[in-house]
Amino acid sequence: MFFHITLERNMQLHPRHFGPHLRDKLVAKLMKDVEGTCSGRHGFVVAITGVEDIGKGLIREGTGFVTFPVKYQAVVFRPFKGEILEAVVTMVNKMGFFAEAGPVQIFVSNHLIPDDMEFQSGDMPNYTTSDGSVKIQKDSEVRLKIIGTRVDATEIFCIGTIKDDFLGVINDPGVTA
Amino acid sequence: MADKGGKGSAFPGGNDLGSLKGKSAAALKESHVEIELSDSDGEGFIETPLPSSKGKSSAEAKSGKKRVSFSSLKTSGDLGKSSNVGKAGGKGSLPQATPLEPLIAETQLKLELELPKGARLLMDCEAAEVLQDIHEHMTVLSQDPKIKMPESFSKAFQYSKVNDHYNNAKAVRQPFSIGPLTQVSRTLKLNAVTDGEICLMGNVCPENVDEVYALIPSLKGNIEKNEVALKDAIASLAKFRTPK
């Protein structure tokens, strides 16, 4: 789920950037440093939407660098337990399948795929119902529920399920092709 | 989790290596049925996501508190055995076909609890609008063409666009409470429908109340109070829905 949040960061700037465009330099550096990062607490920082406040700079002894406390707003994406996501399948194997919802990777184990879907190996490995009416393969769109997340410093991994009502394939590329 | 895994259910015959190991390890001391239920080593594949909930799950299993999480789906304790979730998932292997429903039905959305302070949830359609603006003004914002948006931006932007089911994001907000309160949103708020649940509804774009209750089981607790309000909200959402 996306959310909007105010964050703070101490930015260090080299004195060569000082001048009338100091603020622009700081903002540019902030964007470069922060956007695309992932923290366990907040999730993926997708984009900075505004800079609320830049505090007074503090010269760091010995280096000449100046530290500015910057308060900014950002759009963040983070998956939550219990959340329903629509994801695109990226890989299928006998253990289950991987799907991607935005920047987040989700694994759906074969235990959490309905019992009537069997794994079929081949060029295009897939999970198919016995009557062949539903197929999950690469590029299929599935609606899944997040049942677990693991967060480390730079990545978030999720475990999902499609074994429940109103979950499963939304769009099967094999059918439309 | 490894310690719990010893007793735990979780992984079925589908994983040959796992079941073999499970058997050899457990066969020495447990009965046949126990062997099948136990599966100590087979879960290497998705074992990794568990550590964060390790403490909790064991503590809760002991205290008998039925909070459902991924850990309870795969760990042991009384929960795991009684529900047979792991086995049920197994393709053609042992015990009964499974009651996954009771577990999932107990799943509560903890969105608000996990949110950092001051965070405001955005529906996918709202995020799509915000990111679209940023995408258009990217060069102006950065004032440096060298700065490119990272991959996660493109992915998130793409995701929000694909999941934008509506033709008017601002209007979508109105039946809900995130923006200015309207009649419906007030009712939803009064009935303790959280922002997280509201946002999730907006993202899922449900067609009827059954779908809402199935996907967001935490709403079931207040079914008498919120059913009418939810129906109204769903009807309002349908007006803005983009035909697929």
Automatic annotation (TrEMBL), chain A:
UniProt keyword terms in alphabetical order: DNA-directed RNA polymerase, Nucleus, Transcription
Cellular localisation: Nucleus
Annotated coiled-coil segments of the chain: none
Nucleus is among the record's keywords: yes
GO biological process: positive regulation of nuclear-transcribed mRNA poly(A) tail shortening; positive regulation of translational initiation; transcription initiation at RNA polymerase II promoter
CDD domains for this protein: RNAP_II_Rpb7_N, S1_RNAPII_Rpb7
Domain annotation S1 motif: ranges: 79-156
Principal localisation: nucleus
RNA polymerase Rpb7-like N-terminal domain boundaries: 8-64
Keyword Transcription among record annotations: yes
Superkingdom of origin: Eukaryota
InterPro entries registered for this protein in UniProt: Rpb7-like, Rpb7-like_N, S1_domain
A cellular-component GO term for this protein: P-body
GO molecular function: single-stranded DNA binding; single-stranded RNA binding; translation initiation factor binding
Entry-linked PANTHER family: DNA-DIRECTED RNA POLYMERASE II SUBUNIT RPB7, DNA-DIRECTED RNA POLYMERASE II, III
Similarity remark: Belongs to the eukaryotic RPB7/RPC8 RNA polymerase subunit family.
Function recorded in the entry: DNA-dependent RNA polymerase which catalyzes the transcription of DNA into RNA using the four ribonucleoside triphosphates as substrates.
Name the UniProt record assigns to this protein: DNA-directed RNA polymerase subunit
From TrEMBL, chain B:
InterPro entries associated with the record: HRDC-like_sf (IPR010997), Rpb4-like (IPR045222), Rpb4/RPC9 (IPR005574), Rpb4/RPC9_sf (IPR038324)
Molecular function (Gene Ontology), one example: nucleotide binding
Subcellular location: Nucleus
Any one Gene Ontology cellular component term annotated for this protein: RNA polymerase complex
Polar residues bias: start-end ranges: 69-85
Chain intervals for the UniProt region annotation (Disordered): 1-99
Signal peptide: none
Keywords of the record: Nucleus
A single GO BP: DNA-templated transcription initiation
Name of the protein described by the UniProt record: RNA polymerase Rpb4/RPC9 core domain-containing protein
Species annotation: Zingiber officinale (Ginger)
